[in-house]
Each structure stands twice: as C-alpha cells, then as structure tokens.
C-alpha cells in the first residue's frame, strides 16, 4: 500500500547528492509556481519531463501518481472557463459562456501543477525517504521536526499493518459499512484502538531507546559528499531555473 | 482538501508558509526529546486514519480527524500535520513543496482553534452529554473551518474561484457531520479505555 521507490535505481539522478536534489526541486517548484507566461511554463514542463526520463521511472507509475493532482484540476476546469470575466469564446452551455481568459487560466494552472509534480516525482522516486530526512537536517531544518518526520515514517508501516489487522477482524465478525450510526461508531473505535495501540507502542519504543542510551541525536549511515557530478548538475539546473526566471520577468520571448 | 501545486497565487502561498512556520515553532517548543517517539507514532496513526474511507450515502469520504488531533495534541498539531502532509506529498504526490505551508495551515489552524474552544472538555470531569456535545462540535468545526480556509485560499487567488470555493464548503457539510460523530465516539472511547492519551498535551 505505502510504496516508496519506483525508479530503476541506476540512473544518473539516483546517485546525485540528495541535498542537491532537494534544493533543485524546491527552487524549480517556487519559480514555476510564481510564473505566469506560457513560454516559461511549457519550457518548465519540458525540463521536468526530460528529468523524469533521465531518472528512468516507469511511465505507468508516473501516470498513477499524477491522478490525484489532475482530479482537482478537472474539478477546477468545470468552473474556471465560465466564471472568469473576459472575451467570450464560441462555446456556451445554456446560460454559461466560456471566456478566453478562463480557458487560458485553467490551461496555465494545469501545466504548472503537472510540471511541479513531475519534478517532485523525479526527486522522491530516486531518493529513499530516510535519506531525504537526513538531507533536510543537513540543510538546516530543525532537529526535532526531522526526528518527528523520521519516526512518523518509520511507524507508518507498522500502524498500517495494525489497521489492516483490525479491519480484518471486523470483517470476520460480519461488519458491513453502511451509512448509519453503528458504522461511524465502529470506525471511531477502530481509530481509537489505533491510537491506543500506537500510544502503548510509543512508550515501549521510548523505553527501549532509553535503555540503549538515546540522547536526542539520530545517526545516519549514509554520508553525504559533494562530488564533481553534483556541482555540475547543480550548476546546470540552476542555470535553467535562472533562464526560466529571466524569461518570466523580462518578458522577452 | 489538498490544494495542488500551481493553483494558488504567490501571496497566498507565502502567507500560508509564514503562518505554518509560526505554528510549527510554537508547537515544537512544547516537544522535548522524550515526547518525539510518542508524537511520531501518533502522527503515523493519524496518517493511517486519514486513509480510512467511510460510507456517506452512495459515495465514500475519507476521515480527516484534525479536530481529534487538535484535542489530543493542542499546538503540537502543527508539526504533526506538517509532517503528515509532507509525507503525503512525498509518497502519494498529494499537494507538493510550495503548497505545503498553506495546506498545513488550512488543516492545523482549525485543529488549534478547536483545541482552544473545546480542549477544556477532555480534561475536566463534566456531564457526559456536555462532553459528547463538545467533542462533536470540535470534529464538526475543525472540518468547517478547514473547508472555509480552503475556499478562502482559492477565492483570494482569483474571484473566478468563488463558485468552486462555495461548492467545496457545501460538499463538506456531510463530512462535517460524520467527523463530528466519529470524533465524539472516539474521544468517548479514549476516555474510557486510555484517559492518559487525553491528559498530556
């Protein structure tokens, strides 16, 4: 259910320093999120597609991961063409008339969303979550937040297993979800039981960590080091992001 | 109720990020090393709970439970929700990097508001009916405020979003009622089974 890596594991991107990848993905997301010109957005989409291919990720998996983003976009497409004030287009449904500005705006956010998402997929698919956590710590994120992040991720799978067990035992006892109070109460007790089990487990984990001398520091087995390839990749991507930024602000085509 | 990347205007994104940073800073102040395993496991439990789909008539909705989270964690709901949404972005691509701030604010601010309004009810010994009502209101209001915040984030980006924003709030009405019932039943369960969980925020 909760999967992590989907890349071929042997791409150029997989071997890059995770800190470089995080900074690039962040800068790229920011610049695309604030851009509005179609030249910039289409260029950004092209860049993110090229990077996706060089990360050698299965295309089927990528499409599956793009579904949630595009569901919201489809929802917005139902409204935006009709609610934007502007020049009327040829199509109208009943009393609703589509406007040119509305359609352009909807197009713009669709390209934006997908470009940023593809970049995020390239990052996450080529980097294990634990590595991302340690890299974010080295980039200066608060220690407590990173530890919380790592713990949450570590226990996600455990708690999910417990959830699966509880739901199975409910099914064995003939539980059929319906729209009634009994169903909601049963689910509430399920959530309550998850919290109780999680709470108990956390006390055992905490005791075990104390026994092993936990002092508030988490150690990472993967040492990060900046290599020539990292500097090159960073310089290259920074240039591309800079060009996107210049294109956006100076209005040259 | 995640807002996707690229939809909102930069001003809204920055505003959300600032509020979230402040909230997380306040929340983390109350956390010491001893609490981190407990908080991590509780956030994981909430993450899993948000994957639970419950039937609502012909459709099904997934639980949000930010009201319950607020009642249990108080201000610590901010870091817990930030981490859960960050993981959702990384694992499932719900939301993303630039929207993390505003999405966290939209979920966590209502949780903290509910904590301020109804937090007293879980800690004192009051009549059961008052207790259940307060817990129901916490679950109901958390989702109500969340959907209003999501609607406002869209509306402030452009007036053209207004009908979509209104529909989002309206569509969440049944969710609010379900969340209220589930939160009330769950808090009642926790009070009977393991009151310590409610006592230590």
Description:
The complex is a heterodimer of chains A (253) and B (201). Chain A is mainly alpha-helical and 253 residues long. Chain A folds into 2 domains: 13-127 and 224-250, no CATH class; 140-211, no CATH class. Chain A is 70% helix and 4% strand. Chain A is built from 9 helices and 2 strands. In chain A, strand 1 and strand 2 (96-99) form a beta hairpin. In chain A, helix 1 runs antiparallel to helix 5 and helix 3 runs antiparallel to helix 5 (100-125). The two termini of chain A are 45 Å apart. By secondary structure, chain B is mainly alpha-helical. Chain B has a single domain (10-199), classed as Arp2/3 complex 21 kDa subunit ARPC3 (Orthogonal Bundle), CATH 1.10.1760. Helices cover 73% and strands 4% of the residues of chain B. Chain B has a two-stranded antiparallel ribbon. Chain B is globular, with a radius of gyration of 16 Å. Chain B starts with 9 loop residues before the first helix and ends with a helix. The chains are: A mainly alpha (253), B mainly alpha (201).
Number of helices of chain B: 9
Strand percentage of chain A: under 5%
Secondary-structure element string of chain B: HHEEHHHHHHH
| Topology, number of strands of chain B | 2
The span between the termini of chain A is 45 Å
Structural class of chain A: mainly alpha
The count of DSSP E runs of length 2 or more, i.e. the number of strands of chain A, is 2
Query: What separation lies between the terminal Cα atoms of chain B?
Result: 26 Å
Radius of gyration of chain A equals 24 Å
CATH architecture assignment of chain B? Orthogonal Bundle
Individual helix count of chain A: 9
Which parts of chain B are unreliable, with pLDDT below 50 for 5 consecutive residues or more? Answer: none
Q: What class do helices, strands and sheet pairing of chain B give?
A: mainly alpha
Sheet of most strands of chain A: 2 strands, antiparallel
- Overall residue-averaged pLDDT value of chain A: 84
Helices and strands of chain A, in N-to-C order? HHHHEEHHHHH
Q: Helix share of residues of chain B?
A: over 70%
Biggest interface: A-B, 85 and 74 residues
Identify the strand order in the major beta sheet of chain B: 1-2
CATH class assignment of chain B: Mainly Alpha
């Amino acid at each position: 259910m909760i999967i992590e890596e989907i890349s071929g594991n042997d791409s150029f991107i997989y071997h890059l320093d995770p800190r470089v990848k995080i900074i690039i993905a962040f800068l790229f997301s920011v610049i695309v999120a604030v851009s509005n010109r179609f030249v910039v957005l289409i260029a950004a989409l092209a860049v993110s597609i090229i990077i996706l291919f060089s990360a050698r990720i299965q295309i089927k998996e990528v499409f599956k991961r793009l579904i949630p983003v595009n569901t919201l976009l489809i929802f917005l497409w139902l409204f935006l063409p009709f609610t934007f004030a502007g020049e009327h287009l040829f199509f109208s449904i009943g009393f609703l008339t589509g406007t040119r500005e509305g359609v352009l705006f909807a197009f713009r956010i669709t390209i934006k969303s997908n470009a940023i998402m593809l970049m995020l997929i390239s990052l996450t698919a080529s980097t294990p979550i634990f590595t991302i956590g340690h890299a974010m710590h080295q980039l200066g994120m608060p220690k407590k937040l990173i530890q919380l992040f790592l713990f949450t991720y570590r226990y996600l799978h455990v708690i999910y297993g417990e959830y699966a067990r509880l739901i199975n035992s409910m099914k064995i006892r003939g539980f059929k979800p319906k729209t009634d109070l009994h169903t909601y109460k049963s689910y509430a007790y399920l959530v309550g039981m998850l919290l109780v089990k999680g709470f108990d487990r956390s006390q055992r984990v905490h005791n075990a960590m104390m026994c092993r001398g936990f002092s508030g520091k988490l150690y990472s087995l993967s040492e990060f080091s900046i290599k020539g390839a990292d500097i090159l990749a960073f310089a290259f991507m920074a240039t591309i992001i800079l060009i996107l930024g210049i294109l956006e602000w100076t209005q040259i085509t | 109720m995640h807002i996707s990347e690229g939809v909102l205007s930069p001003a809204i994104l920055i505003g959300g990020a600032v509020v979230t940073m402040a909230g997380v800073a306040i929340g983390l102040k109350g956390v010491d090393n001893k609490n981190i395993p407990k908080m991590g496991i509780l956030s994981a439990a909430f993450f899993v709970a948000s994957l639970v789909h419950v039937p609502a008539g012909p459709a099904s909705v997934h639980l949000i439970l930010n009201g319950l989270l607020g009642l249990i964690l108080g201000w610590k709901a901010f870091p817990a929700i930030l981490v859960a949404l960050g993981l959702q972005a990384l694992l499932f691509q719900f939301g993303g990097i630039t929207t993390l701030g505003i999405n966290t604010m939209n979920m966590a601010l209502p949780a903290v508001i509910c904590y301020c309004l109804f937090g007293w009810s879980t800690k004192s010994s009051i009549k059961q009916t008052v207790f259940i009502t307060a817990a129901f209101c916490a679950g109901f209001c958390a989702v109500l405020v969340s959907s209003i915040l999501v609607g406002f984030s869209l509306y402030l980006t452009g007036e053209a979003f207004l009908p979509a924003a209104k529909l989002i709030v309206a569509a969440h009405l049944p969710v609010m009622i379900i969340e209220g019932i589930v939160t009330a039943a769950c808090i009642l369960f926790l009070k009977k089974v393991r009151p310590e969980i409610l006592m230590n925020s």
